[in-house]
Amino acid sequence: MKKRQLWIPILCAAVLASCGNSQPQNPKPTTEPSASAVSTQQPIVQAQAQTQAFPLTGMPLAEGMTQAPRPIAIMVDNTRDAYPQWGIGGAQVIVEAVTEGGITRLMCLYNQVQDVQKTGPIRSVRDMFLQLAMPLNAIPVHIGGSSFANNFLNYYNWVTIDGLRVGVNVFDYDKDRALVRDAAGKKIGREHCWYTHAEAVQNGLSMRGISIDGAMLPLVDFKQGATPSEGAATQIQVSYSFSAQSGFSYQADTKKYLKTSYDNLPHIDGNDGSQLAFENVLLLRCETYLKPDGVHTDFNLSGGKGWWISGGKMQPIRWQKNGVQQPIELFDMQGNAISIATGKTYIGFLSGTAGESLTVEGASLLDGSPVEPPIASPTATPAPSPTPTPAPTPVPTQEPTPAPTQEPTAVPPPEATPVPAV
């Protein structure tokens, strides 16, 4: 026991030191929220409570529910060492986008806390995912974040469940995963071993003083039975970079798309071995730039072109997002607003990274030309310029915590910034 007490602080200190000053210092985890931990956060979006349907799927609320709770947004590792991931099959929405070095990360969105089974491996957050989660008034669950993401959270006073603040009260360490070795015989990194679950998330809500009640806007506009108006789309292959791929195969009997990942193998949930399946696939093109640090990607989320795929068909679309607090809106190429089918949705952002490609039924839809600047739909309000990165603000001061009565517990180590591919 004493050996563990000594090993954990040394490990955490070493990892924090390796990440520079972009991460806030981690307070010791507490077992009960202090009075000062209760959130006084103002609503982050101006919206109404959703009393008829879940905002992530458009499906009716369960019997007895008077309004939809705030969704849970969990950041999940998507490198090869993270496979098989846990709990991703329970997500109603999965967003995939390149972060750094050609790798992608997933934001898994859940209707409610109860939907979160063992889920992970959990990693740090990026501000582009936060901009997508904000209209939903979602509750982010993550372990650290880029300096830009931390600035974003501070700017909007957005209270999240961050492993650097709540520690092992909310995040557990999978010891079996830590013993796994890669193809070269090396143990995988400890950053691929942290997970959470419903009971732990509930504890995090209590510790951070976060309410699950609140107003929100739907992910997009949903309509039962909606179907794209154009050609066949039963086999889709996406490469986000030279090192990150996704594929989708339509199953006519279930009217869902089964997802594949690395090496075109089924993308499965490690909890039960089931393959990820979606009613809708949205592939959205957007401009990207390098942020001032020369490493992190800056996404222009004001709009662009893309494709909606559902029911074995596809349709070219335009999309727009009129500010960080506004949801994604979808239009056909003539500028008419469209709705997508109710059910689960996968959203992939095509950002022009080297190695990017998209084929549908074997035909390439990307001709290698640069991503076009956003074009406002004729019937829509013109999209604004990209929201500038909020100016750095001081990291909130550490809340006082009572001395632990049990042995010190570990705080999950934040990840080191991936080195971009050369």
Polypeptide structure, described:
A hairpin with a 2-residue loop joins β19 (357-360) and β20. The longest helix has 17 residues, at 2-18. Helix content is 12%, strand content 22%. It has helices spanning 2-18, 127-133, 147-155, 163-166, 175-178, 198-208, and strands spanning 72-77, 93-98, 104-110, 139-142, 161-162, 172-173, 194-195, 235-239, 245-251, 256-260, 277-278, 280-285, 288-290, 297-299, 303-310, 313-320, 329-331, 345-350, 357-360, 363-364. The chain contains 6 helices and 20 strands. It has a 10-stranded mixed beta sheet with strand order 5-4-1-3-2-18-12-15-16-17. The protein has a 6-stranded antiparallel beta sheet with strand order 11-10-9-8-19-20, with no helix packed on it. Strands 6-7 form a two-stranded antiparallel ribbon. The chain is of the alpha+beta class. The radius of gyration is 21 Å and the shape is globular.
Q: Layout of helices and strands, plus pairs?
A:
Elements: H1 2-18, E1 72-77, E2 93-98, E3 104-110, H2 127-133, E4 139-142, H3 147-155, E5 161-162, H4 163-166, E6 172-173, H5 175-178, E7 194-195, H6 198-208, E8 235-239, E9 245-251, E10 256-260, E11 277-278, E12 280-285, E13 288-290, E14 297-299, E15 303-310, E16 313-320, E17 329-331, E18 345-350, E19 357-360, E20 363-364
Parallel strand pairs: 1-4, 2-18, 4-5, 12-18
Antiparallel strand pairs: 1-3, 2-3, 6-7, 8-9, 8-19, 9-10, 10-11, 12-15, 13-14, 15-16, 16-17, 19-20
